[in-house]
Specification:
Rossmann fold; 15 helices; 24% strand; eight-stranded mixed sheet; binds cytidine-5'-monophosphate; 2 domains; five-stranded parallel sheet; 21 strands; alpha/beta
């Protein structure tokens, strides 16, 4: 399966003759399983129609920065956050110049400025325009700022010239784009990740649990695979599809999760506890379904504490780099620091669950990384993108 499977890709098309190749690019990205949103500049629609790109991407094309209808749906900031990568193809000399200046006067330039995702440019222009010192200086500046230039290719041009300035072929652009989703930060590392809730049985049909979706842990597992790690995901019950290229053990209770972790951590390098483990379980699981008694009589359940999986693993495997999560509603950093010490781990990833739209069960999260060195706030991001940033931060601990 392609690394682009389910990735959110914005293809931004500017006004150059190579725009006709962008149709094939979008088709190839869709074939690879990516979700594609297309942005076109005014110049681009002189070369190829939005209808073509709409049919190929399966989504309406975004053309205007302040279109009230678009802003009511996926507005420009939302689109910038949605993206796992933005590929500007073709990228004209003018777009390069505007990006180098940090302009935000149309949708394409605003998205490139507003996104936290990687921005890749596929330059396409006449060879003299590419060789001009102004374009070369812009290219250099954009690379220094962390944008990636794919190409240009050298060869015959639409204007009859021969030289550098041809847009890379769509197939080559897809291969290059796949590369950004496979880093080597964790090459050869063995990683164990817990995710989702646990279920603590009351009787054969009932249990205690919580609303954890498992999204953060699954995104971390996927990002760890993409970073080259050998991943063992130990998951409580979720509705999520199992990520590709990893070992997954499904468990129910906290005690099942602990014993799966103890087995998996024998030869692991990194342990990430993102599961929302039930703190308590019923003291006894009834053999048979518990029946209602009198209409008004109450019912009480004796609970006992579950083992702390993260603290147990950190104590049992002192050479393992252990990372935990902390969901807090107040004094985020202070509580995370206390947890860091109590559980004897290298990092606590803390998030404020009182903030609407982030954390539990949502697609976005905003976290603060707490280590013995201090606290570092990360920007609000979709969990898939945040996971990739977290992998890079944890890789620093594991050196
Ligand atoms: O103590 P608290 O539940 O706030 O700690 C949260 C962190 O500890 C998370 O990383 C969670 O996965 C882990 N944890 C655990 N076992 C428990 C409770 C929490 O591994 N029983």
């Amino acid at each position: 399966m392609s690394r682009l499977f389910n990735k959110h890709i914005i293809v931004a098309i500017s006004g150059g003759i190579a725009a006709y190749k962008s149709a094939e690019l979008v088709r190839l990205l869709k074939t690879a399983g990516a979700q594609v949103e297309v942005v076109m500049t005014r110049g681009a629609i002189e070369f190829i129609t939005p209808l073509t790109l709409q049919a190929l991407s399966g989504n309406p094309v975004h053309q205007h920065l302040l279109d009230p209808a678009a802003e009511a749906g996926m507005g420009h900031i939302q689109l910038a956050r949605w993206a796992d990568a933005i590929l500007v193809a073709p990228c004209t000399a003018q777009v390069m110049a505007r990006l180098a200046q940090g302009q935000a006067d149309d949708l394409l330039s605003t998205l490139c400025l507003a996104t936290q995702a990687p921005v890749l440019l596929a330059p396409a222009m006449n060879q003299a325009m590419w060789n001009d010192p102004a374009t070369q200086a812009n290219a250099q500046l954009l690379i220094e700022r962390g944008l990636t230039l794919l190409g240009p290719d050298v060869g015959e041009q639409a204007c009859g010239d021969v030289g550098p300035g041809r847009m890379l072929e769509p197939g080559q652009l897809v291969i290059e784009l796949e590369q950004i989703f496979s880093s080597h930060a964790w090459q050869g590392r063995k990683v164990v990740i817990t995710a989702g809730p646990t279920r603590e049985a009351i009787d054969p049909v009932r249990y205690l649990s919580n609303h954890s979706s498992g999204k953060m842990g699954y995104a971390l597992a996927q990002a760890a695979v993409e970073a080259g790690a050998q991943v063992h995901l130990i998951s409580g019950p979720t509705n999520l599809p199992t990520p590709i290229d990893l070992q997954c053990t499904q468990v129910q209770s906290a005690r099942d999760m602990l014993s799966a972790c103890q087995n998996a951590c024998q030869d692991a390098d990194i342990f990430i506890a993102s599961a929302a483990v039930a703190d308590y379980r019923p003291a006894e699981k009834a053999e048979q379904k518990i029946k209602k008694t009198g209409a008004k009589s109450g019912f009480s359940l004796e609970l006992v504490q579950n083992p702390d999986i993260l603290a147990t693993i950190a104590a049992d495997f002192p050479r393992l780099t252990c990372v935990g999560f902390a969901a807090e509603t107040q004094q985020l950093v202070a509580h995370a620091q206390a947890k860091l010490k109590r559980k004897q781990v290298a990092m606590i990833i803390a998030n404020d669950v009182s903030e609407p739209g982030i954390g539990f069960n949502s697609d976005e999260n905003q976290v603060c990384l707490v280590t013995a060195e201090g606290a570092k706030q990360l920007p609000r991001l979709p969990k898939t993108q945040l996971a990739r940033q977290l992998i890079n931060h944890i890789a620093q601990l594991d050196k």
